Fold this protein.
Amino acid sequence: MRLRQIALVGHDLEAATADIVAVLGLGIAYADPGVGKFGLKNAVWPVGDTFLEVVTPKAPGSAAGRHLEKRGGDGGYMVLVQVDDIVEARGHIKAAGARVIEDVDMAGKVSMSHIHPKDIGGAILSVDQMFPPESWEWGGPAWKANVRTATSVAIVGGELQGDDPAGMAARWARVLGRDAVAMEGGWRIVFEDGELRFVTATDSRGEGLGGFDVSVRDPAVVRARAEARGLLGADGEVTLCGARVRLVQA
C-alpha cells in the first residue's frame, strides 16, 4: 500500500499552478478531462512517481466548491492510496461500513473506490489499483517524460486535522485495513514509502487535510523560493494552495 497522490482544491487554478511549479520545481501539469463530470478542472504533476493535484470548480454546486466554502478557502481535498488487491481493499471498506461515492473499473487500467469523507473524516479517500502497478492513470499518458526531480523527489505524507484525531485515525485505519499507531501529538498510519498523520486542529479551519509532506533535495532552496512569492510564514512554514507543506530532506 502506497500514498500515491495528494489533491488540493483552490479558487484559482492558474495562480496555484504558478506557485507550485515555481516553489517545488515541477514540470508541465496534465489536465485530466475525466474530472469534468464532477464539475472540475485540474492540474496533475508527477513528483518522482507520486503525484500532486489541484482541482478547481468550474461550475456552481460542485462538491469541491462546497468544500472551499466550508473550510474558508483553498486547502487539502483528497488522498489517493494505491493497493495491489482492490477486491481485498473493497472488503475492508465494506467491513468498516463506509459509504462509497463511486466505484470505477477500467479493464486493464485501473480499479478504484472513493470513500465518503463524512464516514472517515478530513478528506475524500480514493483506494486505487493500477495495471500495471507502476502506472498511474490520473497522471496522464506521458507523465514519466514530465518527471522533474532536481528540487522535489516525492510526496511522502499527508496531515489530517480535526477535533478527534484518535477517532479519525481509527476510522481511516479500519477502511484501509492498516494499524493506526500513536505518535507525539497524534496518530499515524504508515505505508510502504509514506504516512498519514492525524492531529488536533489548531487553526480556525476545522476538520480537513491540512497539509502534505514533500521530500526535497534542499529545503533552504524551497523556502527561499516560497519567501520570494510571499508563501513562507514567520515560522518558516511553506504554504501552497492553502495547505501546509512539510519539507523532508531527501
